[in-house]
Amino acid sequence: MESKTSPKCHLCMSKPRRCQHPDSKAPIFCPTVNLEKITKEANAEFEKPEIRKFATNAILQEAEGYGYRDIKPYLRHPIKSRVEEVCGFLQKMAYKKIGVAFCNGCSNEGRIFSKVLEAQGFEVVSACCKAGCSEKEILGITDDQKVKKNEFEVMCNPILQAKLLNAANTDFNVLLGLCVGHDSLFFKYSQAMTTVLFAKDRLLGHNPVAALHTIDTYYERLLMPGFTISKNENGK
């Protein structure tokens, strides 16, 4: 039996969802119905002036991402790319200095995005993941555990990226293609609020959702019990 205290929104099949329409039916695990205390605690955070301003501008930016909102019946019509939405949000918050933390493999994207930010009037401070030239050996990584085995190899250093941007007193940071886990460390050490322009996906051209869109065909193996995701192309 499902626990009432464990939210499992991914299993909800209600149409419309109870969280969007108060009169809709709710499944047994619905947090909107079962966890009202936590909802009140979360909503109380919006009373903090800096959080209220941030959340309000996020809502306004969301709405501006759609066009023809006055036409009924309403049909969603997106009109802005994420790059445009990021710039719009930064302008709403009146930020001046923006930190850009990018993967070395996305240097070109980092350069182009920084150029866009500068064209929109922002000061850009950037940090590449390889900054500091720290060898992987400081983590105890052996030669056979490197991408290029038995060669000199510099580790990604998201903690340094965050600290470099902290030292520059950035108003807000944007991540471009940091690896899984490296992005998490950046979030942990960054003093400024941060968003992600795009997530790293080496195989799918930084479009990780493509694996979910093809889960019934090319990526159906991900649903196989016991499938060893860590295997390489040689099955090792």
Secondary-structure topology with pairs:
Elements: H1 31-34, H2 36-45, H3 49-64, H4 82-92, E1 97-102, H5 107-119, E2 123-128, H6 158-167, E3 172-176, H7 182-189, E4 194-198, H8 209-213
Parallel strand pairs: 1-2, 1-3, 3-4
Helix pairs in contact: 3-4, 6-7
Task: Quickly list its features.
single chain, Rossmann fold, four-stranded parallel beta sheet, 4 strands, globular
Could you explain the architecture of this structure?
By secondary structure, the chain is α/β, with parallel strands linked by helices. The chain folds into two domains: 29-80, no CATH class; 81-200, Rossmann fold, CATH 3.40.50.11840. It is built from eight helices and four strands. The protein has helices spanning 31-34, 36-45, 49-64, 82-92, 107-119, 158-167, 182-189, 209-213, and strands at residues 97-102, 123-128, 172-176, 194-198. It has a four-stranded parallel sheet, with helices on both faces. β3, α7 and β4 (194-198) form a beta-alpha-beta unit. The protein is globular and about 60 Å long.
